[in-house]
Q: What sequence folds into this?
C-alpha cells in the first residue's frame, strides 16, 4: 500500500549488538576498582571450588604422619588435631561454602521475588497481607530460626541452608516490591496493557526484566552474608557437623586449640573473611555499574 | 434546532464508537471528584475526531475509559461506551484485554517511555502482532516488517533488533504507531502524539497518522491541547471543559462559527502574527465541585450562548453546543462573566 512517506530523518541505527553491550558493561566493572577486586577474588574462589579435588593434595579425611603441626612445605596450612591436612580441608570447604551460599540465597531469591512482584504489582490487600507476613519473618533472628528448625528436624547443613534461606525471603521481597512499584507506574507497562497484555505477562515480561539490576546486586551482597551465616551456624553446631570440612565447623573444632595452635583457626577464618569481603565488594561494584544514578 | 439526546449526530448503527452520558468519578480522600460529566459522542468508521481541552478537562480520561485503562480509583458511575455495538462498561478484565490491541489501540505521548528499555523493538511489536488470533510466528514477523516499513522506518529488520534507546524520538513514535496498528485495530486513540516531538517531526507524525487512516480505514481519536493541530488533522473537533464536552462540530465550522464562550476564548487565544497567545485564566478544581458558575474564574468573552449548565443543543447540522436553553442565532448572547 503506501510507501514510506518520508523516511525518518537521522534514521541511522548505532551498530550495537548484545556482545558490544556486554563488553561495555564489563569495561565499567573493570573501571570500578572495588568491583574488579571483588570479581577477581570471586572468580578465584569459584575456580578453587570447581577444581578442589585437583588442588587438594590429600583426601579431606585422610590421616597424615603428624598431629597438630604448624605450616610447612608439605602442609602449607598445617595438620589438625587428628592428623588431617588443613589446606586440603579448607580447599574442599570452599566448595561447601559457595554451594551453601548459593542454595540458601536461591531459596530467598525465588520466594522473595514472587512475593515482592505480587505485592508490588497488585498493591492493596495483597500487598498488606504479604508484607505483614514478611514483617513477622523479618523479626526472627536467623540463629533463632536455625535453632527452631534444628529442634524440629535435627541439626544438619541442609537444615541450616533452609533456615538461612527462609530468613532472607522478606528482604528480597522488600527490594523486589519497591522496584516493582516504581516500574509498574511507568508508561511502557500501560502501553503493554493497551495492546492487551495480561497481568501475568506484564509481570513476567515487562516488570521482571526491568528489576533485574537491583535484584542481581542484592543477590550478590546476600551471598556473602549467607556464607557467613552458614559458618556461624556450623560453628554453633547448628549447621554442618564434623567431620565435614565446612569452615565454620572447622573453627568449632579448632577453638579448643586456639591458644596453643592458632593456625588451625586462622586459615578457615581468613577464607571466610576473604569470601564475604569479595562478594560484598563485587555487589557494591555491581550496584555502581547497574545503577546509572550512582555513576560518577 | 433539536435539543439533543442524540447529540453525537448519527444513528448508532453506523457508528464505530458511541459514548453516551458517561460519568466518571475518582474516589479521593476528600470524597468523590467528578472527572467526566455526561460525555456523549459518536465516531464513524474511518473518521478522525480531535478532543481538545486544557489539562484536567477530562480528555485523557475519556480515552482511558474507552481503553478500559482507568486508574484504580476511577469509577464509571453511569452511561455507556459501545464499540461496534458492544458495551464496554462493566466488561470483565479478560474481555477487555481481548479488545485492546485488536480493536482499539493507543499511541502515547512519549513513545520512548512507552517502549520497554530492556526488550528489543521486535519482541514488543511481535507481542502486539501475535495478539491476533490464528497468526503463526512467521506470519506475525512478516506483518511486523511490513508495518514498520509502512510507518516510514528504513531497514525494518534492523529496527526489530534494536532497543528503544537506540531510536530517535520520531522513530520511536513511528514504532509506537506500528505497534498500535499491527494487530488491525479499527480505532486508534492518540494521546498527545506529538507533544514531545520537534515541530518538524510533529508534522511528519501527523501526516503519517492521516496516511494510515486513509490506507487502513482506521478511525482516529486525537487528544490534544493544540487547537491548531486538531483543526488541521481532524474531521470533527470536540472541546472539553471540566469533564464535559461543551462544543462539538466539524473542524472548519468550529473555527468559522464557534458558539460556546469557552471555544471562542480558546480560538481568540491562539497565537497569531499580530498577537501572541493571550491567557484566559486558570482552571480551578475543587472537591466537591462548587455550585454555580463553572466559568466564574475565567476571562471569557461573549459567545453565542449562555454556557452554564450543560444541555447539548444543535445549532447547525452536526454542530452541538452545551448551553442553558436554545437561543435563536448568535445574537441572544448572554455569556461571559457575570
A:
Amino acid at each position: 500500500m503506501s510507501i514510506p512517506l518520508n523516511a525518518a530523518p537521522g534514521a541511522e541505527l548505532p551498530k550495537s549488538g548484545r556482545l558490544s553491550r556486554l563488553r561495555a558493561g564489563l569495561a565499567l566493572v573493570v573501571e570500578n576498582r572495588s568491583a574488579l577486586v571483588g570479581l577477581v577474588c570471586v572468580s578465584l574462589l569459584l575456580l578453587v571450588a570447581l577444581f578442589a579435588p585437583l588442588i587438594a593434595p590429600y583426601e579431606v579425611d585422610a590421616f597424615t604422619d603428624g598431629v597438630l603441626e604448624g605450616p610447612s612445605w608439605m602442609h602449607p596450612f598445617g595438620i589438625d588435631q587428628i592428623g588431617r591436612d588443613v589446606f586440603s580441608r579448607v580447599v574442599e570447604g570452599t566448595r561447601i561454602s559457595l554451594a551453601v551460599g548459593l542454595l540458601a540465597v536461591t531459596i530467598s531469591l525465588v520466594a522473595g521475588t514472587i512475593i515482592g512482584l505480587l505485592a508490588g504489582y497488585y498493591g492493596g490487600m495483597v500487598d498488606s497481607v504479604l508484607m505483614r507476613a514478611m514483617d513477622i519473618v523479618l523479626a526472627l533472628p536467623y540463629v533463632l530460626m536455625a535453632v527452631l528448625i534444628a529442634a524440629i528436624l535435627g541439626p544438619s547443613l541442609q537444615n541450616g541452608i533452609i533456615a538461612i534461606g527462609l530468613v532472607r525471603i522478606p528482604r528480597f521481597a522488600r527490594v523486589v516490591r519497591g522496584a516493582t512499584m516504581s516500574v509498574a507506574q511507568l508508561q511502557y507497562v500501560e502501553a503493554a496493557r493497551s495492546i492487551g497484555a495480561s497481568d501475568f505477562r506484564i509481570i513476567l515480561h515487562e516488570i521482571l526484566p526491568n528489576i533485574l539490576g537491583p535484584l542481581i546486586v542484592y543477590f550478590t551482597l546476600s551471598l556473602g552474608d549467607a556464607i557467613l551465616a552458614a559458618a556461624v551456624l556450623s560453628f554453633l553446631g547448628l549447621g554442618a557437623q564434623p567431620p565435614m570440612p565446612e569452615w565454620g565447623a572447622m573453627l568449632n573444632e579448632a577453638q579448643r586449640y586456639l591458644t596453643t595452635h592458632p593456625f588451625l583457626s586462622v586459615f578457615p577464618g581468613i577464607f571466610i573473611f576473604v569470601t564475604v569481603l569479595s562478594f560484598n565488594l563485587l555487589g557494591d561494584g555491581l550496584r555502581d555499574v547497574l545503577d546509572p544514578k550512582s555513576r560518577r | 434546532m433539536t435539543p439533543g439526546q442524540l447529540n453525537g449526530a448519527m444513528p448508532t448503527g453506523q457508528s464505530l464508537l458511541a459514548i453516551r452520558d458517561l460519568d466518571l468519578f475518582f474516589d479521593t480522600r476528600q470524597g468523590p471528584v467528578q472527572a467526566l460529566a455526561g460525555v456523549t459522542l459518536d465516531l464513524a468508521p474511518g473518521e478522525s475526531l480531535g478532543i481538545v481541552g486544557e489539562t484536567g478537562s477530562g480528555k485523557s480520561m475519556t480515552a482511558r475509559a474507552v481503553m478500559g485503562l482507568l486508574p484504580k480509583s476511577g469509577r464509571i458511575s453511569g452511561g455507556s461506551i459501545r464499540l461496534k455495538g458492544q458495551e464496554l462498561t462493566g466488561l470483565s478484565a479478560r474481555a477487555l484485554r481481548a479488545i485492546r490491541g485488536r480493536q482499539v489501540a493507543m499511541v502515547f505521548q512519549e513513545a520512548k517511555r512507552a517502549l520497554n528499555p530492556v526488550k528489543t523493538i521486535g519482541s514488543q511489536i511481535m507481542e502486539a502482532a501475535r495478539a491476533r488470533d490464528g497468526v503463526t510466528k512467521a506470519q506475525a514477523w512478516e506483518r511486523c516488517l511490513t508495518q514498520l516499513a509502512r510507518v516510514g522506518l528504513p531497514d525494518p529488520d534492523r529496527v526489530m533488533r534494536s532497543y528503544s534507546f537506540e531510536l530517535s524520538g520520531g522513530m520511536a513514535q513511528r514504532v509506537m504507531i506500528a505497534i498500535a496498528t499491527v494487530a488491525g485495530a479499527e480505532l486508534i486513540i492518540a494521546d498527545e502524539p506529538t507533544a514531545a516531538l520537534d515541530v518538524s517531526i510533529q508534522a511528519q507524525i501527523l501526516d503519517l497518522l492521516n496516511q494510515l487512516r486513509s490506507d487502513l480505514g482506521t478511525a482516529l481519536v486525537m487528544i490534544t491541547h493544540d487547537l491548531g493541530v486538531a483543526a488541521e488533522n481532524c474531521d470533527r473537533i470536540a472541546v472539553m471543559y471540566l469533564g464535559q464536552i461543551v462544543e462539538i462540530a466539524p473542524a472548519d465550522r468550529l473555527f468559522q462559527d464557534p458558539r460556546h464562550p469557552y471555544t471562542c476564548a480558546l480560538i481568540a487565544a491562539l497565537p497569531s502574527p499580530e498577537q501572541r497567545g493571550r491567557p484566559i485564566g486558570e482552571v480551578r478544581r475543587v472537591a466537591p465541585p462548587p455550585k454555580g458558575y463553572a466559568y466564574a474564574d475565567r476571562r471569557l468573552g461573549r459567545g453565542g450562548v449562555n454556557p452554564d449548565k450543560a444541555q447539548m443543543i444543535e445549532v447547525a447540522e452536526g454542530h452541538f453546543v452545551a448551553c442553558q436553553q436554545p437561543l435563536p442565532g448568535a445574537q441572544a448572547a448572554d455569556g461571559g462573566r457575570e
